[in-house]
């Protein structure tokens, strides 16, 4: 059984999609990041970095529980555990490269673009421009990669596509103000629509649907999500 620590945000969405694609049995454990539950000692024992997603595989290597955090690490762990969605052996170098491109580039820059366009104080025009342009640059790299290709790596659907889907699903937030956020990236648009049409993607969108997560963006939420912006308690 996979214990899946979840909040309805892009990185956990990747794990939802993988689990639904493979049919692995899992239990959803809510971590309401707007309430600061990611900072609770019990969760920090699972992920010292205080982020979702994280998993505990109760049937890990050697039959012992295994804890894994970071969406890219989880995708690799589960793909290797199941032998699914890894592509062909010869695809391995490109698979790792594109997973890291998404995990350390497209994802974080998209997240920072969203933060500075929606959450940061007014007047930070340099930061807004910097992260929006870097997000656009990463989109262009991926769009070029997908020219004439159905999938990011090899000839089959892999965890690289699952990883990309998680963040590209939020393109309308990243590309604030764009009527069609993927219009400038036709190859990404075609690819995303293909992944998003998979039955598992519809099921992944329903993961956690019955859980009430906090939606009010008040001071508690801002302190929970951006603790480094506030002085430590006396």
From TrEMBL:
Domain named GST N-terminal: residues: 1-86
Chain ranges of the GST C-terminal domain: 88-225
InterPro entries in the record: Glutathione-S-Trfase_C-like, Glutathione-S-Trfase_C_sf, Glutathione_S-Trfase, Glutathione_S-Trfase_N, Thioredoxin-like_sf
Full protein name: Glutathione S-transferase N-terminal domain-containing protein
Species: Pigmentiphaga soli
